[in-house]
Amino acid sequence: MTTALDADLSGFLGHEAAGAATLELLVPGARCAACMAKIERGLVGQAGVKQARLNLTTHKLSLTFDGPSGDPARVISALDRLGYNASLFDPAEAKAAEDREGRRLALALGVAGFGAGNVMMFSVPVWAGLFGQELEPATRTLMYWLSAIVATPCALYAGMTFFRSAWSSLRRGRANMDVPISIGVLLTLAVSFSETIQGGRHAYFDAAVSLLFLLLIGRWLDHKLRSKAQGAARDLLALQAPVAYRLDAAGVERGVPVAEVVVGDRLAVAPGQRVPVDGRVETGASLLDNALITGETAPAAVGAGSLVHAGALNLDGRLVMRAEAQSQDSALAAIARLMEAGAQSKSAYVRLADKAAAIYVPVVHSLALATFVGSWALGLGPREALLRAAAVLIITCPCALGLAVPAVQIAASGRLFRKRVLVKSGAALERLAEVDHVVFDKTGVLTEGRPHLADAAPALVAAAAPLARASRHPLAQALAREAGPGPVAEDVRETAGLGVEGLIGGRRARLGRAAFLGIDASQSLETELWFGFDAEAPQRLAFADTLRPDAARAVAALKARGLTIEVLSGDVPAAVARAAEAAGIERWRAGLTPIEKAAAIDSLKAAGRKALMVGDGLNDAAALARAHASMAPGAAVDASQNAADLVFEGEGLMAVVDAIDVARAAKHRALENFGFSALYNLVAAPAAVFGLINPFIAAIAMSGSSLVVTLNALRMNLEARR
């Protein structure tokens, strides 16, 4: 029988432009930064692998080989030795695996919720005995057995998420937060069974399954957030036309899937269609809307010899172009790859709780083991020694530590939600609290992103309106909106990339670019249209993009908080300079492509800066994904909203200031909670070691510590109301 390791998989290799072989694998078992480091370091240098990059969000492992050939089977075998199963990357299979993971978590959450709810039927009578309604020992034992029947299978099934993760971590010689959770749950069940069998007074079946229910809520939400993050690149590539219209030798158009387009194909792009791949115009002239790609507000005129990019919207003229790249090599695909790489770097971010767990886990487990061994050696029986060790583990259970950050993040997220800011992940708040530099896009962020008439007499607007109503040009449409409803010019002819002409009241008139009306406006600093009747001097209509009302105030507030600010825009220099000056920003760069924006963010990162990127366009998506933290307005395109860590509604930029303030306050509260957790463990752990606290009191103390950190987190909301 032929296995995957015996089969020839060389047909699945790709090739870079330089000729080096590439391979993409799906590694579903990789879940943390340690997994990523182990896989990337373990593969480089083996099986001819030159570079290995793992994306934790999509679980896609991208490999580059030393030469034009490689052996996928050897790579899969090397991954197996590292402890990870791998298969050839198939987007459909990756999506199916993601869906299976979501269903598994949802089912585990449902089982834990069922167990937590139903076990209370038997726990409540036992609790009532603590307040003068003492149960007979036989009745109490019966209640414990009924609790065990409900809680044990639910806890074992629901806990598999944590048990698998803990076992995987221990196999690598590390201990993550799932290790103490797993040990705590299993030991709680074991002690509860021991006490029930021996007729003891205290069992904790309800605590085990309830803890898992609460933890699984957070795990399921984290899965949903990761799934949402994967949608950013998919949304981006969805803007690439699914069909290209290829011209054969006879000039006949035939629709083909865009994936089948090869370099050299002649393609037709009709008005209203998107350019399918990168290429160069052979014949035709038109206006292209590149706003989503470059951020430039004015449509770009293209003609024979012009370079066009996939995703650009053809506005008004038929183009015939020659493909210069395949769909997977287009500018859009390059941006999508940058976004994936950015998501990978963010997924490697080590959270505060993980840092604390690296110290907490080995110390507490060593202490519990020493308590058990020492108590037995000093003459206590194995039952008493186990109870004392269990008390150590219970009273030091990482519930308070585990809640220290999530409780604060929930409170902070709720506070921001009331300010109309949506936080997409807890780690985003931690990163946002660390930023020291803010990068704004111009169009749609500093400005409203809607060109409007800035300088024209009412009589001129009324005269030009009939032609404007007949055009699809964005500036003409802005002029038509300003003028309102009314008559439309007759005998209209639109010249792609230049303007429109027609008859208004029987007189020939033109509306369009300066050159269309015979004007030399090479030094013009404004987005503009010109209008004039034949034999009359043309008149100028200037357009502008209005600054957001609170942009200058938000910039001043950010500077007051010690942050440096700059603008990165794809728009023309004159427009960027005006917007930056009006907002009070000294540093700006204009005319940047999406890749150049992402490179600028990488340069800041290399210089040790932690940048917050605020953008809304498709041209900002890669930069948003690669920034230390990122925000997008609610009106942003889907790809940018998905790539951003936070999304804010409304027309104001003060939401950016509010988000940074809340993130910094949340970090302060989280550190306070860590401090309390450390102090609590320093006092409680020795008391449990010396037998001063039994498991029941330990459970109460542990719950109390969780309550304290939760109440401290809620102080954020109290402060917000003052």
Q: What report would you give on this structure?
A:
- By secondary structure, the chain is an alpha+beta fold.
- Residues 1-7 and 344-350 have low confidence and may be disordered.
- The strands form 5 sheets. The chain has a 7-stranded mixed sheet, sandwiched between helices. Strands 7-6-8-14-9-12 form a 6-stranded antiparallel sheet, with no helix packed on it. It has a 6-stranded antiparallel sheet with strand order 17-22-21-20-19-18.
- The protein is 52% helix and 18% strand.
- It has 5 domains: 10-89, Alpha-Beta Plaits (2-Layer Sandwich); 100-235 and 346-403, no CATH class; 243-329, Calcium-transporting ATPase, cytoplasmic transduction domain A (Distorted Sandwich), CATH 2.70.150.10; 406-448 and 547-660, HAD superfamily/HAD-like (Rossmann fold); 450-545, Calcium-transporting ATPase, cytoplasmic domain N, CATH 3.40.1110.
Give the gist of this structure.
This protein has 722 residues and is α+β, with helices and mostly antiparallel strands. It is built from 24 helices and 27 strands.
Protein topology:
Blueprint: E1 14-15, E2 21-26, H1 33-43, E3 49-55, E4 60-65, H2 72-82, E5 87-88, H3 91-118, H4 120-128, H5 137-158, H6 160-171, H7 178-197, H8 205-238, E6 243-247, E7 253-257, E8 266-269, E9 279-283, E10 286-289, H9 291-294, E11 300-302, E12 307-308, E13 313-314, E14 319-323, H10 331-347, H11 352-377, H12 382-395, H13 399-418, E15 421-423, H14 426-434, E16 437-440, H15 442-446, E17 447-455, H16 458-468, H17 474-483, E18 490-495, E19 499-504, E20 507-512, E21 527-533, E22 539-547, H18 551-560, E23 564-568, H19 573-583, E24 587-589, H20 594-606, E25 611-614, H21 621-626, E26 629-633, H22 638-643, E27 646-648, H23 654-689, H24 695-721
Parallel strand pairs: 16-23, 16-25, 23-24, 25-26, 26-27
Antiparallel strand pairs: 1-2, 2-4, 2-5, 3-4, 6-7, 6-8, 8-14, 9-12, 9-14, 10-11, 10-13, 15-27, 17-22, 18-19, 19-20, 20-21, 21-22
Helix pairs in contact: 1-2, 3-5, 3-8, 4-5, 5-7, 5-8, 6-7, 7-8, 7-12, 8-10, 11-12, 11-13, 12-23, 12-24, 13-23, 13-24, 14-23, 16-17, 18-23, 23-24
